[in-house]
């Protein structure tokens, strides 16, 4: 008898989990969260999950209560005798803290991995980790998906005749090179220097963009400072237009206003994090069908990597 699959969600990602469940062909399970006067909360599954495969959808962006809620849901599922507990984490927060870049700091990404394992998670499904090596922080299987499977069809449909890909920093070289390979085009790199986090001091462009339609590629857009400065320097070097694709729209502080005032023609993101404010320049592509297909393949023990073999 096949295992029964049930999909649940934390409060932060209910909008996406509803779409994932619909694409999978089931109803979203019921979770009730009780809030207490002192700020504590208690999530509970309002249906029997004994012996079932449980998929819990929750991104771990700020506030930290989103992560805590996911941990509590995993713990509750384990104590309710779920057969398998899989965390679907569209945006894996704290991923930028994946190493000690100065003395006496935490490696928060590893800490979060330990917390999830201790809570009882048996598998992780996520998309576009900030650093690939974070997969090695877990002792359980990690299905690392790529938003390129969503962005590439969109880019091809733009039919830009003089397309060039670009990375807003040197750390994204591998990512932008992969996009350029799949789209059979060139790429350029913006080189930046920071004096402190979220603030760019200097930036230079490596490569030619004159007369080209440029697409900036990144995994995260936070304050949008790097992205918009990259767009400015690209346009200053003679590009026809510049767009950006970023998987995770954190968009903190005045990021939306920064994008509205920028030279960017368009910013294309996914729904791994809910948009806090609408913007005519921001287009959202859904990850729901991708996550639903991966859940089906996990259950049927089919290949997941084959979803991302675009060149074959």
- Unreliable runs, pLDDT <50, ≥5 residues? none
Portion of residues in helices?
25-40%
Shape: globular
Residue fraction in strands: 25-35%
Write the H/E string, N to C: EHEEEHEHEEHEHEEEHEHEEH
Task: Give the terminus-to-terminus CA distance.
Answer: 36 Å
Mean pLDDT: 94
- What integer value in Å does the Rg equal? 20 Å
Strand order of the largest sheet: 10-9-8-11-12-13-14
Tell me how many strands there are: 14
Explain the overall architecture.
With 312 residues, the protein is an alpha/beta fold. The protein has 8 helices and 14 strands. The strands form 3 sheets. Strands 10-9-8-11-12-13-14 form a 7-stranded mixed beta sheet. Helix 1 packs across helix 8. The protein is globular, with a radius of gyration of 20 Å. The protein starts with a strand and ends in a 12-residue tail after the last helix. The model has no long low-confidence stretch (mean pLDDT 94).
Descriptive key words:
single chain, alpha/beta, 7-stranded mixed beta sheet, 5-stranded parallel beta sheet, 8 helices, 14 strands, 28% strand, globular
């Amino acid at each position: 008898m096949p295992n029964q699959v049930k999909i649940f969600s934390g409060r932060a990602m209910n909008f996406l989990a509803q779409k994932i469940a619909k694409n999978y062909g089931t109803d979203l399970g019921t979770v009730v969260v009780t809030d207490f006067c002192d700020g504590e909360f208690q999530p509970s599954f309002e249906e029997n999950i004994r012996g079932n495969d449980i998929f819990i959808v929750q991104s771990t962006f700020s506030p930290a209560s989103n992560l805590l809620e996911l941990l509590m849901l995993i713990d509750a599922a384990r104590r309710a005798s779920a057969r398998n507990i899989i965390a679907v984490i569209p945006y894996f927060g704290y991923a930028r803290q994946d190493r000690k870049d100065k003395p006496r700091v935490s490696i928060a990404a590893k800490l979060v991995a330990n917390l999830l394992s201790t809570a009882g998670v048996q598998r992780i499904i996520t998309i576009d980790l900030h650093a690939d090596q974070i997969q090695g922080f877990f002792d359980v299987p990690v299905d690392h998906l790529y938003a390129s499977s969503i962005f590439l069809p969109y880019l091809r449909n733009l039919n830009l005749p003089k397309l060039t890909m670009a990375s807003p920093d040197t750390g994204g070289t591998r990512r932008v090179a992969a996009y350029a390979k799949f789209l059979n085009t060139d790429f350029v790199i913006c080189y930046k220097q920071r004096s402190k986090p979220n603030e760019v001091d200097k930036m230079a462009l490596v490569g030619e963009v004159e007369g080209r339609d440029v697409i900036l590629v990144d995994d995260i857009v936070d304050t949008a400072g790097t992205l918009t400065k990259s767009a400015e320097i690209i346009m200053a070097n003679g590009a026809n237009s510049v767009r950006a694709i970023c998987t995770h729209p954190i968009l903190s502080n005045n990021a939306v206003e920064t994008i509205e005032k920028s030279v960017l023609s368009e910013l294309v993101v996914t729904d791994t994090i809910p948009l806090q404010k609408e913007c005519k320049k921001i287009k959202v592509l859904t990850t729901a069908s991708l996550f639903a297909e991966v859940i089906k393949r996990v259950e049927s023990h089919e290949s997941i990597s084959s979803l991302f073999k675009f060149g074959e």
